[in-house]
Each structure stands twice: as C-alpha cells, then as structure tokens.
Amino acid sequence: MKLLDGKLAAEAVKEELRLQVADRAVNGKKIPHLAAILVGNNGASATYVAAKVKACEQTGFISTLIRLEENVSQHRLLESIHSLNQDPAVDGILVQLPLPKHISEQEVIDAIDPQKDVDGFHPVNVGKMVQGADCFVPATPLGIMLLLAHYKIDTAGLNAVVIGRSNIVGRPMSILLSANSLPGNCTVTLCHSRTKDLAAHCKQADLIVAALGQPLFLKKEMVKDGATVIDVGITRVEDTTKKNGFRLLGDVDYENVAPKCSWITPVPGGVGPMTIAALMKNTFLACSRK
Q: For the CA atoms of 121, 123, 126, 132, what is the dihedral angle to 10 degrees?
C-alpha cells in the first residue's frame, strides 16, 4: 500500500504557483486576487475559508474575505457578488457552501461571473466541462485529477467507480475520469443510493472514488486487492478523548481497506489539501486569462 499524500502534492502545486506569481510580479503583471464570501458562523466553513486565505499567502496571491451575518438577506448577498463581478481587481470569487436555508445556493452560484467562478460550479463552466472545452473545473474533482497526475497513476483503461452523484464532486468526477485525457480514459460507473448491489460494482473496480458523506461506508469486502481508493468524505464525529471533542472520519474504513490497496488517500491530508490547491490553480488561470 502506498499513500496518496495530498499535503505533499498540494505543496508541489502551490510552489509552482508561487514561482509563477513571483515571475509575474517581477515583470509587472497582475497578481492573482481571490475574494471569498463567508456567511454565518459555521465552524467547519470558517476553517475551510481560513485555509484558503492561508494558501493565498503562501502562493503570493491577494485575498479578500467578506463576512456576512447568518441572517443576511439573499438580496444583500447577491449585491456583494455583483460588486465583486464588477471589480477588475478581483480574479476569482467563491462563496463558501453550505449557505443558510433561506438562501438559494443555485441562485448564488448562477450570480457569479463564469469568468471568475474559480469553484467551477456555474452552469457555463459545467457545460464546457461536459464538452471537454476550456473551463474552470470544480475544485475537488480537479484536485483529485492533479493528485493522480502527481503520483503518475496510469488510469487509462481502468474500471472506475464513483460513489455519490453530487454536482460538486460525483458527477464532475465521473466526467473527468471518462475524458480522453491523462489522467482519464477510464470506464466509469456512477453509483448512488438507488444503485442495486453497489458492493458488487465496487468489487470490480480498479479505482474507487468515495464521495457520499457517510463515514466508514466503504468496507474491505467491497474492495478488490490492488485497487486505488480516493476518499473524498470528511465528517466530524464526536470523540471525548480528543482535545477538540471530535475526530475526522472519511467515507472509507481506512484501517481495514488500506492493506488491500495499491494506493489510497488518508483523511485528513488527502483530497482536502488538493481541493485548495486546485482552487489556487483556477484563480491563477482566471488572472492569466486577462
């Protein structure tokens, strides 16, 4: 078993970006600028946004954090997005999800300028991704593809199973893995809650991407020897033995599954850092397109 170390791979991506940004600065070119909007006081969301701001510092990007109250109106949030859309200094915009229930996430996503949509959620970018056109790819799937590329995992011809059909991870992941690219060229099965005999599908897979948000779902008997397993899930579970009162679990029963794998991601330290690295890469692309 070999570890797909997301921290290590993410540092490599960020170092490459740092050098590119330094070169832009020397030549008097624009420095990438990422603006993030955080609504409310969700602890996990605040942690994720803080990590993104830190990544900006590490790579030499400019960052702006806009914090709005939990009870902010949708109109007020859309005004903030519109202002960032119109600001030529801002290259990338992200609105941290999830949002409070009184706000329509789809309307918020639709409001972001597709050319600044570095999270890759806007329908324009999703449509271009499906067509294989140049676009901003959703950060988590892009991060996984960068991780596979970093470790030179040959995916051509593999049977891949993606568990979960969300618009953020599952569906775009299935499209990227099946694309005529490197990594890519997999034969992909997209599994979900209505899939019959999901375990049988997994057992045939050379590559499994678990992205359903259910802790320890993927068991050792569902994984064949030598498979590569990517664990996207991360759930806080109460643990009184920990100083912070919780521990983080992935969708994979790592302790029992890992010995069967050729490659596997840890949780934390696997997909999470790569998502942020991919976001930085998208932001750099948005800036360089100008």
A: -150
